[in-house]
């Protein structure tokens, strides 16, 4: 929600930079993300070493983020952690598709369970009005079969028929910053797979095509491939299509779990992603993960609290065709228009 006193902040958010604040970043951010300046209404992003900046920014958990944060701390300047929004775009970022949303967090990365992020605070503090708006957003996301990326077709996956309960286990790529930051590890995936196989359910492991092709390494795919009773699935079908045919989703820290919660599907977590610890998930993270969030996530939340925070209160939205500010419903309309006419995506 935008309040008049925060109108001079980017996106009307009290924790975001004031409009016109010169921001500094590493060379990788300045050169590798040339569109980022438009989100902050700046002609250019400056060097983090510039004496003229009023704060620093860093993207995700890259090595340069520690440097820019240290520079800000040494100079008494604010620092913002940047990531893609939870409703990013029609296509993938690595294919050059520009984002409809990003987040700028003054407290930490949303995937970092070791400390409170701005997203976590927004979820904890969301009120009745946010529940109402969250329900509208959730309904729009679910009815239109949307997720973070929206380029895959809505085709039924080819899975063996079963009368058993079907579990969808989400593998993640080794190096995914959200695993370690959510206080998960390779052991988390091992335990998840062992628990699933001992449950008597049909176990489907959702893996990345690049992992099956040998280009990247997954945490769980290799082990799952040699276990009896596991189905590996890397079909190019949408998140919604996979969720249509499963009874539960088990994950370490993937956004797949959040997508499942939006659709009313039970979710088990083996680490502490942002949507765990609110009474919505079956939390099986280790003692360290439970201890890290126990003192902060003490209220029971509804899925609509999370939807309002993650899709509306937290991110900033822009139309990449002209970089003008938009809201979540405008972003949904742009994605749907891109799906109808790919040249618009």
Strands, helices and their partners?
Blueprint (H helix, E strand, L loop, with lengths): L22 E3 L1 H6 L3 H4 L6 E2 L7 E5 L3 H13 L3 E6 L16 E5 L12 H8 L2 H16 L22 E5 L6 H5 L4 H12 L4 E5 L2 H4 L8 H5 L4 E4 L5 H5 L4 E4 L4 H7 L4 E3 L12 E2 L3 H8 L8 H11 L2 E4 L4 E3 L1 H13 L5
Parallel strand pairs: 1-2, 1-3, 3-4, 6-7, 6-9, 7-8, 9-10, 10-11
Antiparallel strand pairs: 4-5, 5-12, 12-13
Helix pairs in contact: 4-13, 5-13
Could you spell the SSE succession in H and E letters? EHHEEHEEHHEHHEHHEHEHEEHHEEH
**Mean pLDDT, all residues:** 94
> Could you tell me the number of beta strands?
13
Summarize the biggest pleated sheet: 7 strands, mixed
Overall structural class, as computed from helix and strand content, comes to alpha/beta
Low-confidence stretches: none
How would you write the strand order of the largest sheet? Answer: 2-1-3-4-5-12-13
* Overall shape: globular
Helix-residue proportion: 25-40%
* Beta-strand content: 5-15%
Termini gap? 28 Å
Helix segment count? 14
Organism: Sinorhizobium kostiense
InterPro entries: Capsule_polysaccharide_synth
Protein name: Capsular polysaccharide export protein
Kindly describe this structure.
By secondary structure, the protein is of the alpha/beta class. The chain is built from 14 helices and 13 strands. It has helices spanning about 25-30, 35-40, 65-75, 120-125, 130-145, 175-180, 185-195, 210, 220-225, 240-245, 255-260, 285-295, 305-315, 330-340; strands spanning about 25, 45, 55-60, 80-85, 100-105, 165-170, 200-205, 230-235, 250, 265-270, 280-285, 315-320, 325. The strands form two sheets. A seven-stranded mixed sheet has the order 2-1-3-4-5-12-13. The protein has a six-stranded parallel sheet with strand order 8-7-6-9-10-11, sandwiched between helices. Helix 3 (about 65-75) links the parallel strand 3 (about 55-60) and strand 4.
